[in-house]
Amino acid sequence: MLNRLLHSDLRWAFVALKLALVWGLVFCGIILLFLILSAMRGMLAAIPLGIQIACAGLIMLAAVFITVMLRERRRVLQACQHFRAAFEFVKPSTPAEKSHGLSSEKIHDIRRRGTALRGKPREWWLGLEESLECYTNIDGTQGWFLTRPVAESLPEDAVISPFYHASFHQAVPSILTALGLLATFVAILLALSGVSYNVQDALRPVTGIDQLINGLAGKFLSSIIALILSVTFIIVEKKIGERHILDEYNHLIQRCQEIFPFLSHSRILLDLQRLAVSRLVLTEAEFESRFLKADKP
Asked: Which of 43, 125, 169, 202 is paired with 195 by a 20 to 30 Å CA distance?
């Protein structure tokens, strides 16, 4: 009891320390951002208003994409955890059960837990249940096995895709980069449209070139912001989204493999071979016994 309380206290202390570090980093980031904006106040004045609006829009769009990705990630994790929680108190298969299969009582309890699921976890259970078969072992005992590997009954795409749209999230960096470049090119195009050449004006034949040159550096800010946001999204999606989802999926597959024994085709062929050999030996023994009886006077 004392060890359990100590472990609980340590866990809460670790959580409190983690939250303190996160909020400390957020606070430091806000201060750093304020200092950067204060230092760039003069530079921002030289950036065209359209580019500033485009940069703000890119930041908001990236924040929306990250929020959607994290929400979908949470849905996947919750569904997988709900599925594993349904079989939390089911003991892993013993060596005897892996060899002879699950008993009817245990498979009945597992089915009761599986049918109580709702939503996508219920569909995952139905996919597993389709692979469950009662097999008669060579010694005459019967047991329940999975006739397909768990990864085939619960493929990664079928588990993750209904919640997490990985193909869209992989395209987000390209979308952000393209929008940043589009804003840059549009700003340059508008600036070039203000440049004109008048051959009759000998003093100032070219007009509007000063506005183009003065704001030219600021027009590339949207492209730079888009590239930074793209790299940030890739890091967040790979480290926080995809990695945690794959880890949870692997835990789900591993848990199912612990519960359900797998009946391979090699096992069935070996049992058939042993059965055929035993029947052949029995037939030869019967033949010899009958032949010896016939030879007796």
From this structure: 43
The pTM assigned to this predicted structure is 0.74
Q: d(Cα 186, Cα 54) in Å, to the nearest integer? A: 11
pLDDT, tens only, 242-288: 888 999 999 999 999 999 998 888 877 887 777 777 666 656 555 45
Pairing of strands 196-197, 206-207: antiparallel
Q: Is 71 exposed, middle or buried (0-12, 13-18, 19+ CB in 10 A)?
A: exposed
